[in-house]
Amino acid sequence: MWVKLDCxxxxxxxxxxxxxxxxxxxxxxxxxxxxxxxxxxxxxxxxADPAAVVAREYNLYHDDExxxxxxxxxxxxxxxxxxxxxxxxxxxxxxxxxNVPLLEEQFVRTEDPARCxxxxxxxxCRPEPPETAQPEEPGEET
Length: 142
What we know:
Layout: E1 7-10, E2 16-22, H1 32-45, E3 53-59, E4 64-68, H2 72-90, E5 93-95, E6 100-101, H3 113-116, H4 122-125
Parallel strand pairs: 2-3
Antiparallel strand pairs: 1-2, 3-4, 5-6
């Protein structure tokens, strides 16, 4: 597992305090999965007891701090979710060992053009811009 922590330090006793800095204006974004990943990392990498890990989000814009509980069942759920994600990504590889993806033809394209507008793979999937009707010149008959 590789993570990029904003801040982590050892507190009193065996406590490990993890901070995730947020700079945006939004306070509604759910970061519990991200913080759970950090806590999982701390418990594995630093052999920290999950009960001794404190995960906090600090929003710099709002000067707001929130603490998220770190429970063993949440860490297990996060680990299960991560493993499922790894399996999903591996399923898209032709050669897992060398990280070689399946051929483009093996990916299913959507039939719903409304989804294309937000798709990160639009240039790969549909490299030509969609045909658009040209405006008629005044006086032309069709």
